Amino acid sequence: MEIQQLRDHSPDKFASIALAPKGRTDAQEGNWRAQEKAIDDWLPINARRNAKWWYSAFHNVTAMVGAGVLSLPYAMSELGWEAGVAVLILSWIITLYTLWQMVEMHEMVPGKRFDRYHELGQHAFGEKLGLWIVVPQQLVVEVGLNIVYMVTGGQSLQKFHDVVCHDCKHIKLTYFIMIFASAHFVLSQLPNFHSISGVSLAAAVMSLCYSTIAWIASASKGRSADVDYRLRATTTPGKVFGFFGALGDVAFAYAGHNVVLEIQATIPSTPDKPSKKPMWKGVIVAYIVVAVCYFPASLVGYWAFGNKVDDNILVTLNKPKWLIALANMMVVVHLLGSYQIYAMPVFDMIETVLVRKFWFTPGLMLRLIARTAYVAFTMFIAITFPFFNELLSFFGGFAFAPTTYFLPCIMWLTVYKPKRFSLSWFTNWACIVIGVLLMILSPIGGLRQIILKIKTYKFYQDYPRND
């Protein structure tokens, strides 16, 4: 959609009118609002509002069930049975609760919808402070996920190649990341959430399939003869840092909060039928699928391999070859959709800044250049730092815990102001404490693991073949 500049006002004139609303004439006000509406209708988040509840379901499944499920058996090996099971269950309950709060807050102000996470933050914390609190953390999550998905997509393609053609010449991980990225140079040009629905649906189906394959293949293989359920690390510092890093892995697995408002923005809403009803219905379905994917994969994978499990369960599995190859291709398809789900809010931010602040003309050329540059950036970082589990641990605590565990609770306390010492008050403060602990502890473990990897591998040096 190409938006033409209105003839009566140059971009500078529109800027001056926007900054001095009291000085606008009626004609200027009308022209300005027409221009603003045209831009809103062009931006990815606001473009279409005709989604049904099942769109919410598969978009949320695609957003949550991604690379994180493959690392959960590894996280179990650093947590142990008791702590591992407790952390998995508690995280599922807490994140479902905080996600419900965000769905409720989407239309907390009558006649207004908070279509973006930062808009809700601005309402809760103030126009400027809300941006500084929410946007940096949300960008770290979404950009970090896109980088990790680049790495994981490349690893899955490499694993597929090695399983199908074991005797073929080894190809570096770098090239597989570039192959995976090449698909996103095309997919990133899809304009909005509605246009990626087909990709997202395929990704949601694939996530259920490959996580099921992972735990069924582990169960079929049976428990290893020398299986060891002691913690992976042998030293006390190693156990402590490994425990912290595993918390980040689990936090990484529940990242859907960062795009939930943007997904809900695609659902129509009226006073009689608010968007929160179909959205919540879709979220419930999505969380059932999440439980079906996460719990069997993590528990059965750890049961079968113990502390010898790799940071990607599909890397540990080698037989039957055709099934493992198929599962890895399913991961690739899923990550194609997951990358786009998390990239869409970033595209929205980039295009909003370019159009509203720098006065670029909205259109195909703007999207082509901006989105291509973003995909190239995430590909470059993925090639430079091809660390899978270490990235999960670091990003999982540093930004995933705030946006998933305690920011929704703080906004709920700020906006709804539940009665002090009520159940809602205690529950939200408990979630805040847990989220703060995750934010502090898990990056320590993840950063330590990244440092160890850097000491072991030189930059641009590829992993061994069995990685």
What this model shows, in words?
With 467 residues, this protein is mainly alpha-helical. Helix content is 73%, strand content 0%. The protein contains 17 helices and no strands. It has helices at 11-19, 26-42, 53-64, 67-79, 81-105, 117-125, 127-164, 173-187, 197-221, 236-253, 257-264, 276-305, 313-316, 321-357, 364-384, 388-415, 423-456. α4 packs across α12 (276-305), α8 (173-187) packs antiparallel against α15 and α16 runs antiparallel to α17. Mean pLDDT is 83; it is low at 1-20 and 459-467.
Set down the secondary structure blueprint.
Layout: H1 11-19, H2 26-42, H3 53-64, H4 67-79, H5 81-105, H6 117-125, H7 127-164, H8 173-187, H9 197-221, H10 236-253, H11 257-264, H12 276-305, H13 313-316, H14 321-357, H15 364-384, H16 388-415, H17 423-456
Helix pairs in contact: 3-9, 3-11, 3-12, 3-14, 4-5, 4-10, 4-12, 5-11, 5-12, 5-16, 6-7, 6-16, 7-8, 7-14, 7-15, 7-16, 8-14, 8-15, 9-12, 9-14, 10-16, 10-17, 16-17
